[in-house]
Structure formats: structure tokens, C-alpha cells
Amino acid sequence: MTAVAAAPTTPPSLHRALQFRFGAVFALVLTLVLFEVLAPSDDWARALTVALAGGALTVAVATSRARAPVRRARAWLVGGFALLVVIGIAVGLVGAAITFAVVTLLIVGIPVALTGGLLRLIRTAGVTIQVVAGALTVYLIVGLVFASVIAFADTVESSPYFTQGTTVTNGDRVYYSFTVLTTTGFGDFTAAQPFGHALAVLEMLTGQLYLVTVIGIVVGNFASRRTARDVQAESSPPDPEAS
Fold it and tell me: What are phi and psi for residue 236, nearest 5 degrees?
């Protein structure tokens, strides 16, 4: 009788490493933030913005809490949708307004997709570097969402949103949003209307409360976990066979 070779199994730790890609999502979102600040308003820039946002959401969906077949189907759906929009921009079928709506939708979907995977990773492995990356990703998303709200308000209001006038680009709005979120406040852009003032206060409070609560707790638990692991490694008796 011919012996059947056992199928190779993947260690659970490798499964977890492949499943949780919050570091990749963080890198994509950070690239998106920097690109939006630097990019012009050309079609190629809008297409690349959609590609970055779609790529980040695709990876986030692939790390969600759903079953593997569902995650794969959703990832293909999101990636395919983003690809169609990029093609539409390239051939001139998708304008700036639709691109803005699509990018905002993709950005809002990232923390929604991340939450389930983050909670599952915390329950199974505790606070790891991937959890820290996921929490920081949500922080970046907050700044981008407020920039989208500012852009929408700037479009629908009859008077300029900023006291500096109407010649404000999307990169300027993203830049302003993160100076407010981090309470840096350089002063080169300031809101001119009461709604803008209230939105700035809300963003400042959101950014600071998120840093001192969510990020503080996550980083504190990550540091204490590493310290406990180092103490345990130092206190463990040496292996007698190694001598």
C-alpha cells in the first residue's frame, strides 16, 4: 500500500502574520495623506488617489473578521470597483465630483473594515505592533474625513471657507485638517465662518481625545507586554542541554 504523504501545514503564527496586514494599510493610508497634500488636480493624480484609497480598503477588507471566502469576495469587489473608477478617470468618464465622492466612500470604509480584525487580533494575540499600526491608521483616517467635510462645506457655502480666499486646493484642505487634528495651528489657513470654527474645535477635540485614550492605551499595553515578555525571558532557567 502506497503511503500518502501528509499535507504540509502552516503554523498558526504564520497564518496570523499573513491574515493581519494592518501595517500595510497604515503605509498605504500614510502615502495617501502625503500624496493628497502634494498632488495637483490633474486626472492622473485623481486616479492615483482612488488607487491608493482602494488599495488600502482592499487590504483592510482582507483583514476583516468575516470568513475567508467572504473576505476574498469583498476584497475582489472593492479592488474591482476602484479599478473601474480609475479607468473611468483615465477615459474621461468620471469627473472631479464623482472622484471626490468615491474617495470619501473608500476612506470611510477603511476603519469600518479594520475594527473587526483589530478586535479579533487583540483577543487572540493581545496588543501587537499590528494593532498599533491599525490604531494609527484610524487616526490618519480621521484627518482625511475632516478634510472631506471641509471640502464639501467649501463647495456648498456661498462665502469662502477660509479667510485666505477662494484659491484653496484639496492639498491645502488636507494640510489644514492635519494641522487642526494635531493642534499644531500654523495659522496660514484659518476658518472664516462659524461652522468652520465649530468643525475645527470638534476636530481638535477628536484628535486629542483619540491620542490620549485609544493610542495611549494601545501603546501602553504594547510596551507593558514587551516588558513582561523580556522579564519572563530573563527569569527563565537556562536549558541544561544547551551547556
Answer: -70, 140
Torsion of CA 215, 216, 222, 227, to 10 degrees: 160
Is there a domain that residue 195 lies in?
yes
12 inside domain: no
Chain segment 101-138, per-residue pLDDT in tens:
999 999 999 999 988 888 888 888 888 888 899 999 99
Contacts of 92 (CB under 8 A, 6+ apart): 43
Tell me the pLDDT tens digit for each residue of 199-212: 999 999 999 999 99
Count the domains in the chain: 1
- How many residues does this entry show for the chain? 243
The whole domain housing 178 covers 20-225
Give residue for cell 456661498: 158
Q: Beta partners for 162?
A: 191
Q: pTM for the complete prediction?
A: 0.83
Three-state SS at 41: coil
Assess if residue 15 is contained within a domain.
no
CB 233 within 8 A of CB 227: no
Q: What distance in Å separates the CA atoms of residue 144 and residue 181, rounded to the nearest whole number?
A: 10
143 Cβ contact list (under 8 Å, min separation 6): 33, 174, 177, 178, 181, 203, 207
Is residue 75 one of the residues assigned to a domain? yes
